[in-house]
């Protein structure tokens, strides 16, 4: 790989995640200022969808920080950032429904979500250890150590890939719930989808970067063995 190829590669690695984050912040910022026609806050939207699906044991709580929204399967909580929790906006409605989508996945034992949960402990260890072996492989020119690092890193890449269907499925569930419960009107549907798609692109970008980095390391390993 020549200097020009390296520059292009690192430019992609830098620009792709930044573009995805910029797109999300811009889209979320725009539609967080658009009041939803239902007038329901994110907390109310989440609670309504949870109750309609019989998930009375799942709590809706406030989370600190911007876009800190998430579902915790261990504590059975849907955490919404302060603006989404308290305000009635198109963006907050979409995000709240998306996080509830994960709660519904959990209740239905959605296969990809279950697999991702099982991989978390393994990935936490492998992601920390992978670069230790990769650096040893680079500096000591030990292809065996590099290969171990690549295998450990690959576990994280698999985790990223599995995350994609989990996120897209949660977004699809969110839209279905919002429309079936008449929480959003037809004219709001494309706006809610833009918010969800922008959020999904951050996961796509992260996965693309992880796959590219893995491919680069595999090329280095192959080249090292040839030498």
Automatic annotation (TrEMBL):
InterPro entries: Zn_peptidase_2. The keyword Protease applies. GO terms for biological process: proteolysis. The keyword Transcription regulation does not apply. Keywords: Hydrolase, Membrane, Protease, Transmembrane, Transmembrane helix. It comes from the Bacteria. The chain crosses the membrane at residues 6-24, 146-166, 195-221. GO terms for molecular function: peptidase activity. Pfam families: Zn_peptidase_2 (PF04298). This is Zn-dependent protease. It comes from Planococcus halotolerans. The lineage of its organism: Bacteria, Bacillati, Bacillota, Bacilli, Bacillales.
């Amino acid at each position: 790989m020549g200097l020009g190829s390296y520059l292009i590669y690192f430019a992609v690695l830098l620009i792709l995640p930044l573009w995805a984050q910029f797109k999300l912040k811009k889209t979320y910022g725009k539609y967080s200022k658009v009041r939803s026609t239902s007038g329901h806050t994110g907390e109310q939207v989440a609670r309504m969808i949870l109750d309609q699906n019989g998930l009375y044991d799942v709590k809706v709580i406030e989370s600190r920080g911007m876009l800190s929204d998430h579902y915790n399967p261990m504590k059975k909580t849907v955490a919404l950032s302060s603006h989404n929790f308290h305000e009635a906006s198109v963006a907050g409605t979409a995000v709240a429904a998306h996080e509830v989508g994960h709660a519904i996945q959990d209740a239905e034992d959605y296969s990809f979500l279950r697999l991702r949960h099982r991989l978390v402990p393994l990935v936490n260890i492998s992601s920390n250890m992978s670069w230790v072996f990769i650096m040893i492989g680079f500096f000591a020119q030990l292809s065996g150590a590099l290969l171990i690092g690549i295998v450990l890193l690959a576990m994280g890449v698999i985790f990223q890939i599995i995350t994609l269907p989990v996120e897209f499925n949660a977004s699809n569930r969110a839209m279905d719930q919002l429309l079936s419960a008449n929480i959003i009107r037809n004219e709001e549907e494309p706006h809610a989808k833009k918010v969800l798609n922008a959020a999904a692109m951050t996961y796509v970008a992260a996965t693309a970067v992880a796959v590219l980095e893995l491919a680069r390391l595999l090329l280095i390993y192959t080249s090292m063995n040839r030498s």
